[in-house]
Amino acid sequence: MNSRLKYIFVLVCLFVIGSTSSYASSEEHSLEGEKSLNVKELILDHLADSYQWHITTWGDHQIVVSLPVIVKGENSGWNVFSSARFDHGHAAYKGFYIAQEGDYKGKIVEKNASGEEIRPWDISITKNAFALIVCSIITLVLIMSVAGWYKKNSTAENPKAPKGFIGFMEMFIMSVNDDIIKPCVGKNYKKFAPYLLTTFFFIFINNIAGLIPIFPFGATVTGNIAVTFVLALFTLVIVNIFGTKEYWKEIFWPDVPTWLKIPIPIMPAIELVGVFTKPFALMIRLFANILAGHSIVLGLVCLIFVTVKLGTGINASMTVVSVVLTIFISFVEILVAYIQAYVFTMLSAVFIGLAQVEPHHAKKHD
Amino acid sequence: MLLQPEAGLLFWMFLSFGIVFAVLAKFGFPIITKMVEDRNAYIEKSLDAAKEANKQLAHIKEQSEAILASAREEQVKILKDAESTRTRIINESKELARAEGLKELEELRKQMRLEKEDAIKDIRRQVAGLSVDIAEKIIRNNLNSNTEQMAMIDRLIDESMVSKS
C-alpha cells in the first residue's frame, strides 16, 4: 500500500514536472518572439487548435509533430500536405498560408480572385482532431476488448465473472448503466443504454487524456465547442427522434389554459425553445468546465514565469506554491473529468427519459 | 474565438464519434450488458435452486426425523410387548407347572391311599387269617379249663385289640 502511494506520488510529480517543462518551453519560445510575457495570449494559444503538435523547443530547434492538412481551395481543389510546409506559420504553400491576425488568426486561409482573405474548406487533421481520433481508437479498443472477453469466455448457460482489468471495466460500465442510465431513462432504458454508455466513456476518456501532458494526449478536446456541439447534437436528435406522441403533444399543445396557446402560442414557443436549450446547456457545460480546468492549470504554471522578474526569493517560493496548487488542481481535474462525463450522460438520460412520456391518465394514478 | 466551432473539427468529431457509437452500440455495450444481465439471471436462478434444494433437504430431514421417532416409539412398544409377553408366558408356565404338580401329587396321593387301603385290606385278611389260625390252634390245643380258656380268650382279644389299635 505504502509503495503504491509512493508510486502514485512519483507519477503525479512526473506529470507536473512534464507539464511545467512543456509549458516552460513554449514560454521561452514566446519570450524569444515578443520579449515580454502575455499570459492571456499564452493560455489561449494552448487551448486553441493548431495544425501541428508542438512538443517542446530544444535550444533553437522546435520539436513538433506535423499533422496532415486537408483543404479545398477556391480553384485548386482538394489538397493534402504536411503542415511542415508552413514552416511554423512563416511560409505559404500552394496559395495557402496561416493567418497571423484578423478574424481567421491561426487558421489556414487563401486569397480569392479579388484579393480578399477567405477561409477554404478545411478538414485538416488538427491537434484536436488528432487527439480525438487517438482517443476514439482507445475507447474502441478498450470497450471491444472487454466485449471480446465476454464473447470468448462467457455464455448464457455458463456465465463467468471477469477478473482484474476486465472486471474493473465491467464494474465501471455496469455502475454507469445501473446508477445513471436505468433510473434516469426509466423503463425503456435498454434501447438507449448503448448510446449513453458510448457518450460516457467517450467523454471520460477524452477528459482524462486531456490531463496527460504527453504526446499524443494533453489536447483540450472536450474543451472545444465543436466536440461538445456534436455530442449535444447527437443527444438532441436521439431525444426528439425517439420522443413519444405525448412528448410532442406536450410541446405543441400543453396542458395549460387555452389563452396561453391561442391566438399567441406562448407556451408552445417556450416549450419549443426548451427543446433546444437543453442540449445547448449540455454543450456549454462540458465545454466550459474542461476549458476552465485547463486554463487554471496553465495559469498556475504561468505564475512561475510571471514572478521571474520579481527576484529569486519570490520566484522560488511562488514556484513551490505553483507546483503544489497544480498538483491539487490536477487531482480536482481528474474528479471533474469523471463528474462532467457523469453529468453529460445523466442529463442526456434525463432528457431522453422526459421525452418518453406516457399519456397523462397513467401518470395521475401514481 | 473559442466559441466558434471549426468545420474541420466538427467533421472529424462527427466522423469519429459516429464510428465509435456505431461500433460500440452494435458490438460493444449490448454484449457486455447482456452478458452481465445473463449472469445475474443465472446467479438468481442458482440461488433459487439452492433455496429450493435447501427447503427440500429440510423437508427430507423432517421426514426422516419423524420416521426415526415413530420407529423409536415402535421399538419401545415392541419391547414393552415382549416384556409383557414374557411375564405372561412365565406366569402361564408357572401356573401350568403348579397345576401339573398338583395333579400329579393328587394322583400320587390317590395311589398311596389305594395302596394303603389295599395294604390295610391285606393286613385285615392276614389278621383274619391269623385269627382263624390262632383260633384253630387254640381250639386244637386243649381247652383245659374254663379259666384258662377264659384267660386265653381275654389275652387274645387284648392282643387283637392292641394290634388293631
General description of the model:
The complex is a heterodimer of chains A (366) and B (165). Chain A is mostly helical and 366 residues long. Chain A has 2 domains: 68-124, no CATH class; 127-355, no CATH class. In chain A, 62% of the residues lie in helices and 10% in strands. Chain A is built from 10 helices and 8 strands. Chain A has a 3-stranded antiparallel beta sheet, with no helix packed on it. In chain A, strands 5-6-7 form a 3-stranded antiparallel beta sheet, with no helix packed on it. In chain A, strands 1-2 form a two-stranded antiparallel ribbon. The N and C termini of chain A lie far apart (51 Å). Chain B starts with 6 loop residues before the first helix and ends with a helix. Classes of the chains: A mainly alpha (366), B mainly alpha (165). The interface between A and B is large, with 52 and 35 residues.
**Distance between the amino and carboxyl termini of chain B:** 171 Å
Structural class of chain A: mainly alpha
Order of helices and strands of chain B: HH
Largest interface: A-B, 52 and 35 residues
Strand content of chain A: 5-15%
The backbone outline of chain A, from C-alpha atoms, is globular
Total number of helices of chain B: 2
Helix content of chain A: 55-70%
The computed structural class of chain B is: mainly alpha
State the total count of DSSP E strands of chain B: 0
Q: What's the arrangement of strands in the largest beta sheet of chain A?
A: 4-3-8
Q: Count helical runs of chain A.
A: 10
Number of domains of chain A: 2
- Shape descriptor of chain B reads rod-shaped
Estimate the helix proportion of chain B, in percent: over 70%
Along the chain, the helix and strand elements of chain A come as HHEEEEEEEEHHHHHHHH
Oligomer: heterodimer
- Main sheet specs of chain A: 3 strands, antiparallel
> Using only CA atoms, what is the Rg of chain A?
25 Å
Please mark out the parts of chain A with pLDDT under 50 across 5 or more consecutive residues, or reply none. Answer: 20-35, 362-366
State the separation between the terminal residues of chain A, measured CA to CA. Answer: 51 Å
